[in-house]
Design goal:
Distance between the termini: 48 Å
Shape: elongated
Strand content: under 5%
Number of strands: 0
Number of helices: 2
Structural class: mainly alpha
């Protein structure tokens, strides 16, 4: 299997940072949030995507004909 040296470098950097926080996801999240605050960069938030509601037990059964 071919290894991309750039991807490998990113993975090593990510692993090194995670190791500094003992692989604690909450601590990593707090670190990134603090970095975001310190850098004063805008936060992009998107509206939630529309999802079709899941069928319930009382939902009608869809027709299989296709007409």
């Amino acid at each position: 299997m071919w290894n991309d040296p750039i991807v490998e470098e990113i993975r090593q950097a990510s692993d090194k940072l995670a190791a500094q926080f003992n692989y604690d996801l909450r601590a990593l999240w707090e670190y990134y949030r603090e970095q975001q605050r310190l850098q004063n960069r805008p936060v992009v938030s998107r509206p939630p995507r529309y999802r079709k509601p899941l069928p319930t037990l009382n939902s009608p059964v869809p027709e299989l004909g296709g007409e």
